[in-house]
Amino acid sequence: MAAYLLAESQITDQATYDSYKRQVAPVIAKFGGQFIVRGGPIEVLEGTWQPSKLVIIEFPDMGTLKSWYTSAEYAPLLALRQSAATDHLIAVEGL
């Protein structure tokens, strides 16, 4: 069953975040992941949530998503992202 990583980001250092973006896609792909949403305009239809940047990544399953997130390959990129943005991440299984 597919699993999805949803990330809301508040970028604080655009240059560093751009470096992260250039490097992360191949690591995600190595774990079978693909971007479903990667930024773009956001239109609030209900409620007060106002994310400035939203990313959704699909993985084959929750185990693979967690393996990617805790992998040695992603660790330096995680640190890079955390130095350039404040994020909220959740993982959820699909149908």
Overall pLDDT level: 96
Number of β-strand runs: 4
Count of alpha and pi helical runs: 3
User: In terms of structural class, how would the helical and strand content be classed?
Assistant: alpha+beta
Q: Which stretches are poorly predicted, pLDDT < 50 over at least 5 residues?
A: none
CATH fold type: Alpha-Beta Plaits
- N- to C-terminal distance: 7 Å
The largest sheet is: 4 strands, antiparallel
> What is the percent of helical residues?
25-40%
Any guess at the CATH architecture? 2-Layer Sandwich
Q: What proportion of the residues form beta strands (DSSP E)?
A: 25-35%
**How would you spell out the order of helices and strands?**
EHEEHHE
Strand order of the largest sheet: 2-3-1-4
What Rg is obtained from the alpha carbons, in whole angstroms? 13 Å
Could you say how many structural domains there are in total? 1
Just give the CATH class. Alpha Beta
Query: So what's the overall shape?
Result: globular
Oligomer classification = single chain
